[in-house]
Automatic annotation (TrEMBL), chain A:
This protein's UniProt keywords: Membrane, Transmembrane, Transmembrane helix
Protein name: Dihydroorotate dehydrogenase
Transmembrane segments: 61-84
Membrane keyword on record: yes
Organism in which the protein naturally occurs: Roseovarius azorensis
UniProtKB/TrEMBL annotation, chain B:
An MF annotation (GO) of this entry: DNA binding
Keyword terms of this UniProt record: DNA-binding, Sigma factor, Transcription, Transcription regulation
Pfam families for the chain: Sigma70_r2, Sigma70_r4_2
GO biological process: DNA-templated transcription initiation
Name this polypeptide is given: RNA polymerase, sigma subunit, ECF family
Domain RNA polymerase sigma-70 region: residue ranges: 31-95
Family of this protein: Belongs to the sigma-70 factor family. ECF subfamily.
Entry keyword Endoplasmic reticulum: no
Protein's UniProt keywords contain Transmembrane: no
Domain RNA polymerase sigma factor 70 region 4 type: 124-176
Length: 117, 193
């Protein structure tokens, strides 16, 4: 397009922009009402605190014993107990020390084996 | 704060009042911002019903954003123009299959300033030409030449440089001029204005 024509067209656009400004689409009363209703709903939701959830039995026990520090102590004790139970006989008692062990329930072992005195 | 006393209160301060549960602030913000949001959405979409949906959604996002609004970082209007543009781009992607001829004319809310039939015809022709522009060009042209914003503010809204805004508006105006000239020739009349 020659420069002069382009310039003329660009200037002509101003009339269209003016017309567009005059023909501004306005919101309906219904839309305004919906927007205010949304605003009130958001304000109401912010005002009311979140509902409290009822704690389950497990959670009540957890709180009763004192929360995570107590649970950590219990877990440590349990792990230590398992370790002692599984590692002590081999780790601490050699064949010599085993001789000092006294079986206090020999009858039970005999009964289990189906024996007869 | 009473409703009447809020006329001069800046949008950002009203938003803080809104977040504190002030009902009057909600009404003032709605009355002040909604017409601008609606007009912008319509110019980007060309459809009245869709523009109303976008307007409601943009305002709802503003309400939800209010408690986290960071003072001094952005103007409420800048933030809203950006949200409206993003919502409109999403809508237009979904509306691609709708033919331009099927787009209904605005049904209500016409400004009383529709002085002449020629003005109305021009506004409708411009809207049709705007609908044919790429999204970013349309947004830049509307913000600059219809909303009347300055290039730095448009750059903030579109998150681009001022030079990029100038380039978009320049290309958009050239495309509009070409489309409108073509339309005049199709209709068999020459615009006097």
């Amino acid at each position: 397009m020659p420069m002069k024509d382009e310039e003329r067209d660009m200037n002509g656009l101003e009339a269209y922009f003016d017309a567009a400004r005059a023909e501004r689409a306005a919101p309906s009363a219904d839309l305004m009402a919906r927007i205010i209703a949304d605003a009130q709903a958001v304000q109401m939701a912010a005002r009311s605190p979140a509902p409290r959830r009822r704690a389950g039995l497990g959670e009540q026990f957890y709180r009763l014993i004192g929360g995570w520090p107590a649970m950590a102590g219990l877990a440590t004790a349990a792990v230590a107990g398992v370790w002692l139970g599984t590692s002590l006989p081999e780790g601490l008692l050699g064949p010599g020390e085993a001789a000092y062990l006294v079986d206090v329930t020999p009858e039970l072992a005999f009964d289990l084996a189906g024996g007869d005195f | 704060m009473p409703f009447d006393a809020m006329g001069e209160t800046p949008d950002e301060a009203l938003l803080v009042l809104f977040a504190n549960g002030d009902g009057a602030a909600a009404r003032v913000l709605t009355q002040r911002l909604t017409p601008r949001v609606m007009a912008h959405a319509y110019r980007l979409l060309g459809q009245h019903a869709e523009a109303e949906d976008v307007t409601q959604e943009a305002m709802l996002r503003l309400w939800k954003q209010a408690p986290d609004w960071r003072q001094g970082e952005a103007k409420v209007s800048t933030w809203l123009y950006r949200v409206v543009a993003n919502l409109c781009i999403d809508r237009r992607r979904r509306m691609r299959s709708v033919a331009l001829d099927a787009i209904p004319e605005p049904e209500d809310g016409r400004a009383s300033a529709a002085d002449t039939l020629q003005d109305r015809a021009r506004a409708e022709a411009l809207q049709a030409a705007l609908d044919g522009l790429p999204d970013r060009q349309r947004q830049a042209v509307v913000l600059r030449h219809i909303e009347g914003l300055a290039n730095p503010e448009i750059a903030a809204i579109m998150e681009i440089t001022v030079e990029a805004v100038e380039s978009l508006t320049s290309r958009g105006k050239r495309a509009l001029a070409a489309a409108l000239t073509e339309r005049q020739e199709e209709l068999g009349y020459a615009d006097e204005g």
